[in-house]
Amino acid sequence: MDNKEAISVLNDLIETSKDGEKGFRECAEDVKSAQLKTFFNQRAQECGEAARELQRQVSSMGGDPETSSSLSGTVHRRWVDLKSMITGKDDEAILNECERGEDVALKNYKAALQKDLPPAARSLVEKQFHGVQRNHDQVKSLRNTARVN
User: Fold this and answer.
1) How crowded is residue 137: how many other Cβ atoms within 10 Å of its Cβ?
2) What pLDDT is recorded for position 38?
3) Orientation angle between helical segments 91-113 and 3-30, nearest 10 degrees
4) Contact call for residues 96 and 27 (beta carbons, < 8 A)
5) What angle do CA 8, 138, 79 make, to 5 degrees?
6) Where are the transmembrane segments (predicted)?
7) CB neighbours (10 Å) of residue 44?
8) How far lies 127's CA from each of 24, 30, 81, 109, in Å?
9) In angstroms, how far is CA 30 from the centroid of its own chain?
10) DSSP 33
11) Which of 9-13, 40-44, 96-100, 131-135 has the lowest mean pLDDT?
């Protein structure tokens, strides 16, 4: 993989991380549970830091780092807003949509790991993948708990 392609892959992950940051922030605003607000705000901060790490990596490779979220992430957040207006903003519904967003993030990171990235970039993507997997699993667990209650 040439440098330009690797930068493109990392820029896609910056968009994914920014999508996660914005998505988690919106979830924090909408949930009623103080515990979930704290959880979502922490995940938003971590996604923001992940985006900054990727931006630094892109810069170190001589590229121009992405600075915004993706169009698909924006569309998903608007869909969540519309759905919430119709169904009400209960914590389980918010967790369902959050898990859907984390499914996309996992898919994007798995696709990036299939690429032949330079060693430093691969190491960073692998590290962040584990964080995305953890977020997904935690959101799923919280959603399952909300379903029972």
Assistant:
1) 13
2) 97
3) 170
4) no
5) 60
6) none
7) 19
8) 20, 29, 31, 10
9) 17
10) -
11) 96-100
Q: Give pLDDT tens digits for 57-114.
A: 999 999 999 987 655 555 545 555 555 555 566 888 888 888 888 998 999 999 999 9
Give the start-to-end residue ranges of the domains of the chain: 3-148
* Amino acid letter, residue 54: L
For residue 121, which of 48, 13, 31, 30 has the smallest C-alpha distance? 13
Tell the residue number behind the tokens 């009400």, with chain if given. Answer: 88
DSSP string, 65-124: ---S--HHHHHHHHHHHHHHHHH---HHHHHHHHHHHHHHHHHHHHHHHTS---HHHHHH
Rounded CA-CA distance 5/65 in Å is 13
Token couple for 135: 């977020």
Burial of 50 (0-12, 13-18, 19+ CB in 10 A): buried
